[in-house]
Specification:
The complex is a heterotrimer of chains A (827), B (185) and C (260). Chain A is α/β, with parallel strands linked by helices and 827 residues long. Among the domains of chain A are: 5-233, Dimethylsulfoxide Reductase, domain 2 (3-Layer(aba) Sandwich), CATH 3.40.228.10; 325-461, Rossmann fold (3-Layer(aba) Sandwich), CATH 3.40.50.740; 667-826, Barwin-like endoglucanases, CATH 2.40.40.20. Helix content of chain A is 24%, strand content 15%. In chain A, a hairpin with a 4-residue loop joins β18 and β19 (602-605). Chain C has helices at residues 18-26, 81-85, 112-116, 138-142, 148-152, 163-176, 216-230, 235-251, and strands spanning 4-9, 53-61, 64-72, 92-95, 100-102, 123-125, 130-132, 158-162, 180-182, 192-196. Chain C has a 4-stranded mixed sheet. In chain C, β4 and β5 form a beta hairpin. The chains are: A alpha/beta (827), B alpha+beta (185), C alpha+beta (260).
């Protein structure tokens, strides 16, 4: 979230799209309703299903699963055509005025594609701004130049008319227009609109572009940086924000530092390639600090090694090779992966085409699962999984983990609040917390390599690990999360004098001193910092700010600066410099996040995003040129979001002849190759538009979650009170669909897909809340099913992901869980 | 702990005055449920489910969680909880929790209870064996890669920050590149 | 002691069912075995171990779909029919704070309250021969806390306060959302009230009695017969006798009177 949960109360319009917060983030509705009751905010819910979020909405608009870009394209087009944009904001704070390379061609020129497509990849040379002689992008502040971003954007979305989009999405034109009208009303400088999104947005073969479309819309309306605005990803797990911050993904290190590649052999080369340069004196270009953060991280991991040596210890990934979630399972199916650690995750239910996933897991020599309960993953070898245990050679360990009340530590919520949890009771039985387990494995591995030697032992032997020490008796002491928190925050390991330019003073630090903020991190190895965005979470007296519980709210905006701690540097609303005009005056006088005091020569309110006088810097400090990007050359699939159909669709793309995204990794095509491993061949096939399979599986299916269960149900299906509320798997369908298929109240139905012809069963929930979509003159049906069920737990049921396709987004490789094809029949 | 909003009602705790309903017969004291949390220790925690980060109070007595409910002081939820957050009590008090270290041998059809020491030594030995057998110092282009592609590590969104940081540190020190978690799905 | 009202603003309910679980957790009520019911409503009905329930209804009116979610629990009547019907002293009492509370120690399982209740709230357990229903968490009120369901409610659907405050709030809100206050009859006072959306009628909600009133037979029972029967009844022995004579006839009247 750019903003945070309490901030939703300041919105004048709330667009819930690709999320269902009333069900999956129920407490957010406290703040949604606060905005509605106190401000008269309008609630807009756009969803294929009439959800519990839609139940109380002012406007509910339906859309066929997977047509978000088309829908948002109509809203963007409406904003531009009706001039419902925040012009001052757009001109000053976005790249609207930048001139683009004349050789660039867009979807209007190239039938849904962009210039540079070669094979299944874009050469992005033409996706670039024109630079002036100082190396700063050329601008046309009148926004009239046909080559400026604004005009290109206008041209791109001119095709997304209400009529056309209504026909693509199945959304009633009047509803669509009502959404356009109501939401774009927030273009007024004093008003703000917020977007609440989640996996309904991202889990598509163009999920990242769905988010981009939100960004374009919010920038045009001037809705980023202000109170009640922002693009707010509602995260589904209590610490998925923190675990991402701490680099638990293949492509990043901690604090979103890019992961080193094989063609970056030294830290010097890494820094050179990953430190963006910018010549605009008004751009802070925050990533320009990359070498400091990287050096501090290397020192946190290998204290006694010099920086280059430490860097050499990091494993390197091949340039262009993807090691993400889907490739893990294809490598596993191919027998390339022999061992796996599973820390509180349940891919046997949660991964796409999960029947195939379970077969891939069976190829492992060993697997270690750490969890509170037995999961389908740890139990994949059992008879309930439909396999013969004797045939499965995998050695499995199931380590009992402590629950959140049985240990202490911090977690970071969606709004970046890092909150400390205290230990209430000892872990049950022999359970231990994850840190204890990690500490045991590290120390035992260190000991084993010290004793026996082995392949490249240096990074293990030299790993700095000074929490949970090994005693003289060889016993491994329990680690202290507070020690780890200190390393994450950072401290000095050498004497250092640092000039504070703002205050005009020299600050002196000695070894052991806490790093007060990431501005003090050094690139010379004198500082240690495990995760730079968390620098400042502990203050110089050693007080852990994540434990703070002071309910004071000095701005009255619900920012609670002393309740927990928010990264970065306790800033509650990021990009908040965009909430004020170039004179430092808030666009909204009623809900000012930040304002410049000419008397004090200082910013008051929230922690400003970047220092300096008004207009001294550009607000989007994480972007090299400092302006919000309407034109995003960093994307794999185009600088502007363009509508494509889902991989599996019964609808032809009528906006262009590019049926699906041209740059997605086509596992389904690999599946057809003769050399393909049979596990992948069966698990990756897809029912493409116009194919025989699409005729066999004619119904759109979307997966989702309900309030009463969580993710794969790996926790909640063991909770009796929750199973009472939702005891069985069910599939939602319209009355029209049920009638056509002879399905009546109480029936069980069977769902099959191209990847799973045996199918799964579920109860039919026949509801008025789903209706067929009218698309290109035809009625198109959809059904919806939860993905909470599997064969373990107190409540069991058909696993929806046994049906889902094995395909991902080209930018992130997030799987498509939201739009695919099935056949539904009475069981 | 600040208890500013803990008591909502402007009344002092006191005896329940029972009153009849005009029948002249309801003179028995009303059934008073045990005031179960009055003397329990309050421990603040944050909900382990979604990303909202609601504050929860666990009431602890004699080493047991006896009650969990929304923390009324917490600015985000102000005491409110959904069905999942409201059921935290059944995480702490749940006879189906994993309480022992379990091991499944290749081909076996049941778990076997084992000791931590044994399991951790075996895990470490497996890890080392797999790592050593496949460790790559260079790739096909002869670039230095120092990696182990035969072990994957997934998960982490349910871990605390300090844990997941330590996990990332361990994974990368071991040379792992197949490192992923819930943020990808 | 002040008199309280729990206000249920149906226009704000999102059916998250935090209230349902909070009720179970605070009152130490076990989960009951359930099966898919055709909708999200589960358990299908109130029961001995489920004292509040979100009822889900899908109603189409004027081409617009209303997905109605209603928190259903004891209304805590000012003049509770259940307590009037109850033959066992102390099994059902009304407190000054407005709550009508059952005490299992005195309950003889005769089901008189179940038959008498105009809202069809009390439920009994056949094996235990006891009744149970929402107690408005009177023990929490006594501790200065709001009822568990109200504390848990995230959306502002459930609120709790003094009678004066809540009556005012109800009127204000009903006016703002063009809704209606339930029970509408000013002569039938309860300590739980609803704001229902004006787009639908009371009859569109399942299991909601449009015209709650004290069963006429109860006047006769309580004012004439009951005082006499109680003469000479002492403690449990008498109650058990009553149980014996009453239980039979009332079995015949299992038809719910709350109105579907």
């Amino acid at each position: 979230m750019t903003n945070h949960w309490n901030d939703i109360q300041h919105a004048d319009a709330i667009l819930i799209m690709g999320s269902n917060p009333a069900e999956n983030h129920p407490i957010s509705f406290k703040w949604v309703n606060e905005a509605r009751t106190k401000r008269g905010a309008k609630l807009i819910v756009v969803d294929p299903r009439f959800t519990r979020s839609a139940a109380t909405a002012d406007i509910y608009a339906r859309l066929r699963p997977g047509t978000d870009i088309a829908f948002l394209g109509a809203v963007i087009n409406y904003a531009i055509e009706k001039n419902r944009i925040h012009e001052e904001y757009v001109k000053n704070y976005t790249d609207a005025a930048y001139i683009v390379n004349p050789a660039f061609q867009g979807a209007t020129d190239l039938d849904g594609l962009f210039s540079g497509l070669t094979g299944a990849k874009y050469d992005k040379a033409t996706w670039a701004y024109e630079m002036d002689e100082n190396g700063i992008p050329k601008q046309d502040l009148t926004l009239q130049d046909p080559l400026c971003v604004y005009q290109l954007l206008k041209k791109h979305y001119s095709r997304y008319t209400i009529k056309k989009v209504s026909d693509i999405t199945g959304c009633d034109a009047a509803d669509l227009e009502a959404v356009c009208e109501t939401y774009t009303a927030t273009c007024k400088p004093e008003l703000s609109g917020t977007i609440m999104y989640a996996m309904g947005t991202t889990q598509h073969t163009y999920g990242s572009q769905n988010v981009r479309a939100f960004a374009v819309l919010q920038l045009l309306l001037g809705n980023i940086g202000n109170a009640g605005g922002g693009i707010n990803a509602l995260r589904g797990e209590s610490n998925v924000q923190g675990s991402t911050d701490h680099g638990a993904l293949f492509h990043i290190l901690t604090g979103y530092l890019k992961y080193p590649k094989a063609n970056q052999p030294t830290l010097a080369v890494y820094n050179e390639q990953n430190t963006p340069k910018n010549k605009d004196p008004k751009s802070l270009n925050w990533w320009g600090n990359t070498p400091k953060y990287m050096a501090s991280l290397m020192k946190a991991w290998w204290r006694d090694a010099d920086l280059e040596t430490a860097y050499s210890y990091l494993p390197k990934i091949d340039d262009g090779k993807n090691y993400s979630y889907l490739p893990i399972y294809s490598a596993m199916a191919n027998g390339e992966i022999k061992g796996m650690f599973v820390w509180g995750m349940n891919p046997a239910v949660g991964a796409p085409s999960s029947k195939m996933i379970r077969k891939a897991i069976a190829q492992l020599d060993w697997m270690v699962c750490v969890d509170l309960w037995e999961t389908e993953t740890s139990a994949f070898w059992q008879k309930e999984a439909g396999v013969n245990p004797a045939d499965i050679k995998t050695e499995v360990f199931l380590l009992p983990a402590a629950s959140s009340m049985e240990k202490e530590g911090s977690i970071s919520n969606s709004g970046r609040w890092c909150q400390w949890r205290y230990k209430a009771i000892d872990p049950v039985g022999h359970a231990e917390d994850d840190l204890w387990i990690i500490n045991q494995i590290v120390n035992r591995t260190k000991a084993l390599y010290a004793k026996e030697g082995g392949a490249f032992p240096d990074p293990i032997a030299n790993l700095t690990w000074n929490y949970g020490k090994v005693g003289l008796d060889g016993k491994i002491h329990p680690p202290s999360p507070r020690e780890v928190a200190k390393e994450i925050n950072g401290y000095f390991i050498a004497e250092k004098e640092i000039e504070d330019k703002a205050k005009g003073e020299i600050k002196k630090f000695k070894p052991g001193d806490i790093v007060p903020s990431f501005a003090m991190l050094q690139d010379d190895g004198s500082t240690v910092c495990g995760c730079w965005v968390y620098a400042g979470s502990i203050d110089d007296k050693g007080e852990n700010k994540m434990m703070k519980r002071d309910p004071a709210d000095p701005t009255g905006l619900g920012m609670f600066p002393n309740w927990s701690w928010s990264w970065p540097v306790n800033r509650r609303i990021v990009y908040n410099r965009a909430s004020v005009n170039v004179e430092g005056k808030p666009f909204s006088k009623e809900k000012p996040v930040l304002w410049w005091s000419p008397l004090k020569k200082a910013w008051l309110g929230d922690i400003p995003d970047g220092n300096g006088d008004p207009d001294a810097i550009l607000p989007f400090i994480m972007v090299p040129h400092g302006r919000g990007m309407l034109f995003a050359a960093g994307m794999s699939d185009g600088p502007f979001p363009e509508h494509y159909e889902p991989l599996e669709s019964v609808v032809k793309n009528t906006l262009s002849n590019s049926q699906v995204s041209p740059v997605i990794t086509r596992w389904d095509e690999k599946a057809k190759e003769e050399t393909c491993n049979p596990i992948l061949a069966a698990g990756c096939i897809a029912a493409l538009y116009g194919s025989e399979e699409a005729k066999e599986f004619p119904t759109i299916c979307s997966t989702y979650r309900v309030s009463e269960h969580w993710q794969t149900g790996q926790m909640t299906r063991w909770i009796p009170w929750l199973n009472e509320l939702v005891p069985n798997q069910f599939v939602e369908m319209s009355e029209e669909f049920a009638r056509e298929h002879g399905i009546t109240f109480g029936d069980k139905v069977k769902l099959t897909s191209a990847r799973n012809v045996e199918g799964i069963t579920a109860y039919a929930m026949i509801t008025k809340r789903l209706k067929p979509f009218r698309i290109q003159g035809k009625d198109i049906h959809m059904v919806g099913i939860t993905w909470h069920f599997g064969y373990k737990g107190l409540a069991t049921g058909g696993n929806a992901n046994d049906l889902t396709p094995f395909i991902g987004d080209p930018n992130t490789m997030i799987p498509e869980y939201k739009a695919f094809l099935v056949k539904v029949e009475k069981a | 702990m600040n208890i500013s909003r803990r008591n909502f009602l402007k009344l002092a705790g006191g005896t329940l005055a029972a009153a009849g309903v005009g029948t002249g017969i309801g003179v028995q004291p009303a059934f008073a449920l045990p005031k179960k949390v009055r003397y329990a220790q309050e421990v603040t925690t944050i909900c382990p489910y979604c990303g909202v980060g609601c504050g929860i109070i666990a009431h602890v007595s004699n080493g047991k969680v006896i009650n969990t409910e929304g923390d009324p002081d917490h600015p985000i939820n102000k005491g409110a909880l959904c069905s999942k957050g409201g059921s935290l009590y059944q995480i702490a008090n749940n006879d189906k929790r994993n309480k022992k270290v379990l091991y499944r041998a290749p081909g076996a059809d049941a778990w076997k209870e084992v000791e931590w020491d044994w399991a951790l030594d075996k895990i470490t030995a497996n890890l080392k064996k797999t790592r050593d057998a496949s460790f790559k110092l260079t790739n096909a282009n002869n670039e230095v890669v120092n990696r182990c592609e035969s072990i994957a590590a997934i998960g982490g969104a349910a871990l605390d920050n300090e844990e997941v940081y330590a996990l990332t540190k361990m994974n990368r020190a071991l040379g792992l590149v197949y490192v992923e978690h819930q943020a990808r799905i | 002691m002040a008199e309280y009202i729990k206000l249920i603003d149906v226009t704000k309910c999102t059916g998250c069912r935090g209230c349902q679980v909070a009720c179970k957790q605070w009152n130490s009520l076990p989960a009951v075995d359930t099966m898919f019911t055709g909708s999200l409503q589960n358990p299908k009905d109130l029961n001995y171990n489920t004292w509040c329930l979100i009822r889900f209804d899908e109603v189409e009116k004027d081409g617009k779909l209303n997905w109605l979610m209603r928190h259903d629990a004891c209304m805590h009547c000012e003049t509770p029919a259940c307590a009037k019907a109850c033959p066992s002293p102390g099994a059902l009492t009304k407190n000054e704070n407005g709550s009508v509370v059952h005490n299992p120690a005195y309950c003889i399982g005769c089901r008189s309250c179940i038959v008498a209740c105009p809202f069809d709230i009390p439920r009994n357990d056949k094996a235990l021969e006891k009744m149970a229903k929402c107690s408005l968490c009177h023990d929490r009120i006594d501790d200065g806390k709001k009822p568990a369901c109200v504390t848990a409610c995230p959306t502002g659907c459930l609120t709790f306060g003094t009678k004066e405050e809540m009556l005012k709030a109800a009127e204000k809100r009903a006016e703002k959302v063009k809704g209606v206050i339930y029970p509408a009859n000013p002569h039938y006072e309860t300590h739980v009230m609803y704001i229902l959306p004006g787009t639908v009628g009371v009859e569109d909600f399942s299991h909601m009695n449009p015209h709650p009133k004290m069963p006429a037979t109860l006047y006769w029972w309580k004012n004439l017969f009951k005082p006499f029967t109680l003469i000479g009844i002492a403690g449990v022995a008498g109650a058990a006798f009553l149980h014996y004579i009453i239980k039979g006839p009332h079995r015949v009247h299992e038809k719910k009177e709350g109105g579907e």
